[in-house]
Structures are given as C-alpha cells and as structure tokens.
Specification:
- This is SprT-like family protein.
- There is one protein chain.
- By secondary structure, this protein is an alpha+beta fold.
- The protein has one domain.
- Helices cover about 30% and strands about 15% of the residues.
- The protein has eight helices and ten strands.
- A hairpin with an 8-residue loop joins strand 8 and strand 9.
- The protein is globular, with a radius of gyration of 18 Å.
- The chain starts with a helix and ends in a 6-residue tail after the last strand.
Length: about 260
C-alpha cells in the first residue's frame, strides 16, 4: 500500500478535472488530504484561494504581492470524507467547486465568519447542487448544506464509481459525524470551515466564532490602504478570510508592522 495516498489524490484530481471540463471558470487546485476532524472545528473539506505558491516561468524572483496574487488554490479533502459513499464525496467536491466559481468571479459567497449566502447558493445551483426546499439556513454557516441532485449524480456516475474504487484507505470518524453523532452544533464546507459542507461545528466564545476566548491577533491583507483588525486565532485557522478588494487571504500582521 505504498502508493495508497497518491492513488487517493489522483482520484480527487480526476474528479476535479471532470468538474472543470463542464465548468471551465473553475480554477485548477493543489489537492491535499489529511484529517479534518482532529481539532475543535471539524470540516469535510475546504477551498483556500492562493494557498500554494507556483514556480515563476520567467525566472524572476516574485515579490510577496506577486506570490499572494498568483498562488494556486488548495483543495483540502478530509480523510474522514473518503469513508463516505462516492455520491457524498462528489457532493462535497461540487460544494468546493462552487467556492472556486465564486473566487474566479470575485464574488463573495461567504462572509467574514464563513456564513454561506445566496451568492454561494447561486454558484452551487450552476454545479448541480440545491438548497432543500423549505429548509432554514443554519444560524452560523448559513446556506452551506446544499445537496447533490439525482440528475447531477447521474451526470457524474462514472466519476462517483471511480471515487469509491479508489477508496484504498480513509479515516473512520466521518461516518459518525455524518450520522449526527458528533460533538457540538449539528450543522464541513463547513460544517467546519470554508467549504466544509456537513458535519459539526463547535463555536467558541469569540465574537467571530473563535475558540480561544478573549485572545486576539491583528490580521491584514496586501492592500496599500490595509486596515488591520483583531480576530481570534482559532477563527483564522478554521478557514481563510478574503479581503473584498485584493481578494487575498488575511494573514497575521508582522510585529515589525507596528
């Protein structure tokens, strides 16, 4: 089983390319996996814009601004999700692709706390996901829990079969959380974070959903007129927060910036 991990990533990349062929606006990602349930804010997956730096083809040394603007998005898929049926995995990949579509269009599908809005739902609809009729949005994660339709599952039938065939290994806790037996508020794209589309979320005492009480750090973006603001470390770790102007993730302000 020395190539188990690479086979899993290949299956995820194959599914993502299939989605891209149907929806060319969706950006190419760096796919990674690991445990999404080891912390206090479990998540099935996330889409993180600009997470990975890419080689500069012209050979020049990029500036920090260049790197942040040109970085490749990260598609994280939890090992717990891989233990669920292929249709459920595909649902989450389409959820993350909706975030990718929002990002490509410079739309805001979530607010600063990761609450999914109608802009996200619109992108999700284009990808074949729907918000269940008559269902109220979650008080914390909003319209995160969109669901794959039978028609969409049929379109991706072969990919769903390949995802299940590629399940050489997975982490076991996912089925427990999917069945509503987890700790916290029943909601992964989210729900334990940006893109976490199912599962549970445990909110802390911080005003922005952090889990470390009153401790705050200042974060900033790359805007020339950036205005640093305080946030809990736990909230910053849970999912990336994008600036509405430069569309890059906020990061902790260096002490030298004081």
């Amino acid at each position: 089983m020395t190539n188990t991990g690479s086979q899993i990533i290949k299956a995820i990349e194959m599914a993502w390319r299939t989605i891209q062929r149907k929806h060319p606006e969706i950006p190419t990602v760096v796919a990674v996996t690991g445990s999404g349930f080891h912390g206090k804010n479990p998540k099935w997956a996330h889409f993180w814009p600009g997470r990975w730096l890419t080689d500069n083809e012209e050979g020049k040394t990029p500036t920090v601004v260049d790197e942040l603007l040109s970085g490749a998005p990260e598609l994280f898929v939890s090992g717990e999700l891989l233990g669920l049926p292929g249709r459920r995995i595909m649902q989450t990949l389409l959820h993350e692709a909706a975030h990718g579509l929002n990002c490509a269009r410079k739309e805001h599908g979530t607010n600063i706390n990761g609450r999914h809005n109608r802009v996200f739902v619109k992108a999700a609809n284009e990808l074949g996901l729907i918000w269940p009729e008559g269902k109220e949005p979650h008080k914390s994660i909003g319209f995160s829990q969109v669901e794959i339709t039978d028609e969409t599952a049929k379109k991706y039938e072969k990919i769903i079969e390949k995802l299940e065939a590629a399940r050489l290994a997975y982490l076991a806790d996912g089925r427990r959380f999917e069945n509503g037996q987890g700790i916290g508020t029943k909601g992964n794209g989210g729900d334990g974070g940006e893109g976490g589309d199912g599962g549970t979320q445990k909110r802390g005492r911080g005003s922005r959903g952090g889990s470390r009480g009153g401790k705050r750090i200042y974060v900033t973006c790359i805007c020339a007129t950036a205005d640093p603001f305080p946030i809990t470390p736990g909230r910053l770790e849970r999912a990336p927060i994008l600036c509405g102007n430069c569309m890059t993730p906020f990061r902790p302000r260096d002490e030298d910036d004081d």
